[in-house]
Queue: 2 jobs
Job 1
Amino acid sequence: SGKGTIGKIISKYLKFQYLDTGLLYRAVAYKFLTSKSIISSDKAIFFAKNIELEDLDNPELRFERCGNLASKLAESDKVRQELILFQRNFAHKKVGAVLDGRDIGSVIFPDAKIKFFVTADLAVRAQRRKEQYKKMGQEYSLTDITNKLEQRDKRDKNRKVSPLICMPDAIVYDNSEVSFEKLNKEIIEIVEKKYKSLKL
Ligand code: C5P
């Protein structure tokens, strides 16, 4: 939905470090896909426990197959528990941090000072995704991408542990029809206003 772009805008503006937490789930998936291990709970926990920051630099994590398997592995409470530690440690290393992901404002940092809930139309997301895949040398039909996104959203919203929800204290931002310049300007304005009101 563009949460990565927004996360990076904010982290650059506040000079905070940034973590795309989806990459953690993708990195666990990647370990399965490349080691050809049979998927089991124990193995998933083992991979999750051993994720390192450097693992997240791999561009192949963005591949469709990684995202799809990541979403299935993310249903496991035990995998999530392992990755919670990574996320909380990351944020506590320095003064402040921006994390993006489906459960950041609800589970990982329920007391976060500023929360965004980022949305975009399914059709817009699918088109953006298609272009991203194309840049990575992967071609998928728009219908295929739309269906996969829908399936993934459904799984993320309906899972028992840490489902994707909008917290009542989150700022809802729809970035379907916004140019990068407008997005950049609006996000900084919102963060500036909110940040000042916090009197940190
Ligand atoms: O955001 P991204 O598409 O990279 O995330 C991949 C998958 O990882 C999501 O579909 C979701 O199931 C899972 N995820 C999660 N909680 C997060 C980040 C990602 O469950 N904080």
Note: Strands lie at 17-20, 97-100, 116-119, 171-174.
Job 2
Amino acid sequence: MKSAFPISYDPTQTESRAPRNASSARTARDSALMKAVCLVALVSGLSALPAQAAAPIENKRAFIAELVGKMTLDEKIGQLRLISIGPEMPIAQLANEITAGRVGGTFNSVNRPHNRLLQDAAMKGRLKIPMFFAYDVIHGHRTTFPIGLGLASSWDMDAIRLMASTAAKEAAGDSVDMTFAPMVDIARDPRWGRTSEGFGEDPYLVSEIAKATVKGFQGTLPVPADRIMASVKHFALYGAVEGGRDYNTVDMSPMRMYNDYLPPYRAAIDAGAGGVMVALNSINGVPATSNTWLMQDLLRKEWGFKGVSVSDHGAIVELMRHGVAKDEREAARLAIKNGIDLSMADSVYLKELPGLVKSGEVSTNDIDKAVTEVLGAKYDMGLFQNPYLRIGVAKDDPADLDAESRLHRAAAREVARKSMVLLENRNSTLPLAKSKTIALVGPLADAPIDMLGSWSAAGNSKNAVTLRTGLNAAVGTQGRVLYARGANITNDEGIVKYLNFLNWDTPEVTQDKRTPAAMIEEAVAAARQSDVIVAAVGEARGMSHESSSRTSLDLPQSQRDLITALKATGKPLVLVLMNGRPLALQREQQEADAILETWYTGMEGGHAIAEVLFGDYNPSGKLPISFPRSVGQIPTYYNHARLGRPFTEGKPGNYTSQYFEEVTGPLYPFGYGLSYTDFALSDVVLSGATMPRGGKIEAAVTVKNMGQRAGETVVQLYIQDVAASVVRPVKELKDFQKVALQPGEEKVLRFAIDESKLKFFNAQLQHVAEPGAFNVQIGLDSQAVKQKSFELQ
Ligand code: BGC
């Protein structure tokens, strides 16, 4: 666990991610920071340097080789050190360390004067090698967009690119050069808290999003001034930790890795991601950080990755805890030999590499390789041409980092609208009429910090629009909103304590001191005076976070009790879910008339949710991950392997693969999501019954809007290999198109199928398309599909 941030100094002006700080302490800290920055500038004899004139650098390889040739061993080792701003060392010491060539980059500072000072320190160094500044820019920067699962629910790559390019622009404006994103770990066990950060369970969808986010964050190489370098994480298989318990071990067959878990990392790298962050977990007995197969054979040799690799936070030292290194010296040796270029948040390289080189256990070549990658990344970030590329000049520094003018609310709202999934809508309960009286209840109805979701690092909850604010704004004077909190997130004080510990300085989960019964009573009274109830329930954002794994997927009991009491009023009940993982909703499915999954919608969430509730926007999101009926059903992913004794609908107890106490299959399948209109799909038409080798066929389908409202839906194409040399999944997503249709409008959608869509990694890990029959399935979710078959010759 990272330590709390020193109170006198906060370069981030953020409140949610390490270092996190209380917004109440913000102003005091801002002035403390500025004092610290000025003081160090005076002591070092530098005021902020003006931006250097751009120096033309044509040949990257020659340039870097020449520079490496001039560096001492200590200077090379210094470049491999990535310092976490704050906890690790005071700013004056840091500036001295930089000038002495003992730091390559920092992360967790998003403040231009601060980073300018550090860059000034680098420019005083012997070789004037620029620093780079990294940050966790995950789903937005100053403007917070929906969390990963929400972004993925949009199935809209333009929207996702918009998030990434907007975040990049804002972060670049805050002097950030690199983000530790995208996070593309496939998650099939929703107990894992980091499920929220990723894009779900499907290799194809997550790969498409990996490409879109890399392009959005980074644009091209070299990275332009208003973009930031992407480093895909966590390489590899972090989402497959056993039991969904964070940091747990991963044991996986190579075939599963290649077919299901590795494609998104590969997609990000092929899209040009400049960096790779290495996972904290072990893989088949070897920690990723010291895993030669992973880092050398696969990443560098097989995939040809040319960028920089970064350890995760403290991961090199953790090699000792994994039990593969007896001391720090051995840990450093294993990591550097394995090609971990940057050591994050520890000084283990700095301490150990000189001795290891001296003894010959590590060669200068090992060091040169790592330093070449680090300098290469700096080159690609454009920093050798201009070390102040994203820092700019002091006169342009923003007076208020969180100023309204720096935000991109329209973009955040647009993406948020698209990120919600309508799970239930009995009796057309939704959309609501604005002229009615609405009882708005629930612990998440007016919780600004939770709107942001986890890893909303530079997001500021004071800028967040809660559902209460959004509903009130939408209703105006036409109707009424009666608010009552109704319940605390949980009545379990132990859990509250844990969540507030997680968030260091700021207790995020605040308990209403009234009794649960009194809170419910107030909510029920509000419900009785209303035409409809909107209950915002789910998880505090810290419940779906790093190190927040759960054993249950139920709503906490405090909220279940509230829902049951609300149901008993007989008023129509709409649940607005805010959560970072699939929940087990069997009970809520029975109790609620409508359920809208909003995940964590980001800064503009309150407005965006109101637009959906009132039908100003027709929901179009589809689940990027299956919802199990209960925690015991995990894993529930749709693209599971075929079995000798599969469960057969309507034939229970016949020695088939099932849990006998519960209905088989997910509560809500992958790809599922309702709309306020209905869409109909025609049968699938294939352009031919056979596909020649190297050829193509086309699958066409007509989709029609059968209802009274305009709407969008996602038409999904799945393929099943009927008989192959190895067991293949029941189906796999291979393509999709999001289409907007007016009432009564229809469109023919065409999908090109070539061999690349039929290929898989066989038992020898060859990427092959095997001849024989394939079923093409097209549907509006992964279960209700129309099917046609063809033969690959
Ligand atoms: C997380 C990474 C993150 C890093 C730096 C680690 O704890 O696992 O995802 O990028 O911290 O903040």
Note: The longest helix spans residues 26-43.
